[in-house]
Design goal:
The complex is a heterodimer of chains A (192) and B (80). Chain A has 192 residues and is mainly alpha-helical. Chain A contains 9 helices and no strands. The chains are: A mainly alpha (192), B mainly alpha (80).
Chain lengths: 192, 80
């Protein structure tokens, strides 16, 4: 990520270029996290907008203890979870040191998808599998795998320890693998 | 290394965060355990698929709307 101090200083001077840079840097990233959690384009856009507006209000008092991006992601994460909680309770996560769920499917589909599925089918499977994850695991998976952030930064965004973040990522990967295994196994069986 | 231990270390193995000894033990296990090899390969593939295809963006039109709205409030709150 870019040098925050310069960008922050320019934002405080209300530089239009700085706003454009901020928007270009973060709007789509923040949108992906919000959309992944909320699964609704309108709500995701609202949350991204609210996060930027909060930053503008706080610009002068922003201490730079966390990076701009980390701060924005954290606001988007919290606003998204607030919206979800308003509808229903969030899924509880197992404790960090609870046993991992054992793999159930041992079908090797690692060579399958591109050859046997259309783009639309593949996209639908990926979407359904990630939708089935508990929200907190989904957030960690998106930040780490889709956005490519290091575990330490994910932990700061989610306000958990680095070890807890790594456990969430591990569980998310295993659950997604299981979901996709079942989806791909069914799709190849039904084609034979 | 047992299958349960390999499962425990799987993410660290994929991320190259295991120390040398454990990496060697994991490799030895994977060379002889078909099921764990499948779990490794399909987990890697899972990660790859989301990395490759997970990058959705706001639609161009909605993005411009959002940009305009935010720019207005950024540049001058008086314009409301
Ligand atoms: Zn094994």
């Amino acid at each position: 990520m870019p040098d925050d101090a310069n960008l922050l200083a320019a934002l405080r001077e209300r530089s239009p270029e700085a706003f454009r840079e901020l928007f270009e840097l973060y709007s789509d990233r923040l949108y992906r996290l919000a959309l992944g959690l909320l699964r609704d384009e309108n709500e995701a856009e609202d949350v991204v907008q609210d996060a930027f507006l909060r930053l503008f209000e706080k610009l002068d008092g922003f201490e730079g203890r966390s990076r701009l991006g980390t701060w924005l992601y954290r606001i988007v994460h919290n606003l998204s979870l607030d919206r979800l909680r308003a509808k229903r309770p969030l899924a509880d996560l197992p404790d960090e040191d609870d046993a991992l769920p054992l793999p159930v499917s041992f079908v090797d589909w690692s060579q399958i998808p591109e050859k046997q599925l259309t783009e639309a089918e593949l996209a639908r499977y990926l979407d359904q599998a990630i939708a089935a994850l508990p929200e907190k695991l989904r957030a960690m998976f998106i930040l780490s795998e889709v956005e490519g952030l290091p575990a330490k930064e994910c932990a700061q965004i989610l306000e958990i320890s680095v070890s807890a973040a790594k456990v969430r990522l591990h569980r998310a990967r295993l659950l997604l693998r299981e979901q996709l295994s079942q989806a791909f196994a069914e799709s190849t069986i039904s084609r034979e | 290394m047992t299958c349960e231990e390999l499962l425990q270390y799987l993410s660290d193995y994929i991320d190259n965060e295991l120390d040398e000894d454990l990496t060697a033990e994991a490799r030895a296990h994977l060379a002889t355990c078909h099921n764990c090899k499948v779990v490794l390969d399909t987990t890697r593939k899972t990660i790859f698929l989301y990395r490759e295809r997970g990058k959705r963006a706001i639609s161009a039109e909605r993005r411009q709307e959002l940009f305009d709205k935010l720019q207005t409030s950024f540049l001058g709150k008086a314009s409301e």
